[in-house]
Each structure stands twice: as C-alpha cells, then as structure tokens.
Automatic annotation (TrEMBL):
Segments annotated as ANK repeats: 124-156
Species per Swiss-Prot/TrEMBL record: Lepraria finkii
PROSITE patterns reported for this sequence: ANK_REP_REGION, ANK_REPEAT
SUPFAM superfamilies documented for this protein: Ankyrin repeat
Keywords for this protein: ANK repeat, Repeat
Protein name: Uncharacterized protein
Lineage, broadest ranks: Eukaryota, Fungi, Dikarya, Ascomycota, Pezizomycotina
Residue stretches spanning the membrane: none
InterPro entries associated with the record: Ankyrin_rpt, Ankyrin_rpt-contain_sf
Cytoplasm is among the record's keywords: no
Pfam families xref list: Ank_2
Signal peptide: none
Length: 174
C-alpha cells in the first residue's frame, strides 16, 4: 500500500485510518494482524497513534477490545494517550471492562491509576469499576479493588459499582 504511494492516514467514512483497522482486529495472534500493525508502526507507516475517528475512538480504545495484552502495551509504548475519551466519555479502561477483556484491564489500569484516572466518569456517570462489576469478571473487579478504586461512587441513576453486578449484559462494544 505504502509502496504504491497510498497515504496511510487516509480515512474511511467512519473516520478510521488503516491503523484503526489493524489495531482493532480481533485475531490477536495472527501474522496478518501483528505483521500489518508492526508495518504501520514502523518507519514506513509512522501513524498518529492518537488519531480519533468520528466517534472520538482512538486506536487504544480499539486495542482494549482485543484479547491482546501485547497490542495494548505496544500502543502505550508508542505514546497512546491514556486520557483519551470516546464521544461517550469512556477511556480504554472503561472499554476493556465493557468488553470483558480482563487480561487487558490491568495494563491501562496500572497506567491510569498512576495518573489519577481511576475515577473518570463517562456520560452515564459510571467509572470503569461500574463496568468491571457489570462484566461478571471477578479478575477485573479485583484489579480495581487492589488499586483502591472507590466502590461507593454512584452514577447518574444513583447506582454504585456493586449495584452493576446485577446488570450482566450481552454487549459487544463494536
């Protein structure tokens, strides 16, 4: 693609770049995905790792939906903004919890807690702990309790994170 002179920053109708597409692929360990991602991150592609699409979704948000801890860590190592929020006010931690990716919850949590971001409220007034409880993944909840997340903060409906345990939805963030 790049050898043909095609711009790697070109956007589709959703405002996504090839980098969004490569990062968000769910086939975590395939050569296709990892090879393309490394190619785009290399000197050939040089993508903006914090570019947002039409819904303010950045590549780090898409990486948080995958099963790949490596991809999330790689994004942060490349300078992904841990403070980036979607149009709904959700961070990478919110999204990892919503999509039940307990294996990737720890990485952004580790980074964001050190930057004081554990209590970011989305447009519904929910913290990532609300979504961790709602996910049914006890590993994720333990991570938040382990870093001192506030279990008493309430959302706009007056629900605390532990109340969200009763709301086990079937949702796919994409």
């Amino acid at each position: 693609m790049l050898e043909l002179g095609i711009d790697a920053s070109v956007r589709n109708n959703l405002g996504q770049t090839p980098f969004h597409i490569a990062v968000g692929r769910r086939d975590q360990n395939s050569w296709y995905t990892n090879g393309r991602l490394e190619f785009l991150l290399g000197s050939n592609g040089n993508p903006d790792v914090n570019v947002a699409d039409n819904k303010e979704i950045c590549p780090i948000h898409l990486a948080a939906t995958t099963l790949s801890e490596h991809r999330v860590r790689r994004m942060f190592n490349e300078g992904a903004d841990s403070k980036a929020l979607t149009i709904g006010g959700q961070s990478a931690i919110h999204i990892a919890c919503r999509t039940r990716q307990s294996n990737t919850v720890g990485l952004p949590t580790e980074l964001c807690i050190s930057e004081g971001q554990s209590e970011i409220l989305d447009e519904e007034g929910r913290t990532a702990l609300h979504y961790a409880c709602r996910s049914g993944r006890t590993e994720s909840v333990k991570i938040f309790f382990g870093v001192g997340a506030d279990p008493y903060v309430t959302d706009h409906k007056g629900k605390a994170p532990l109340d969200a345990c009763a709301e086990l939805p079937d949702e796919d963030y994409r």
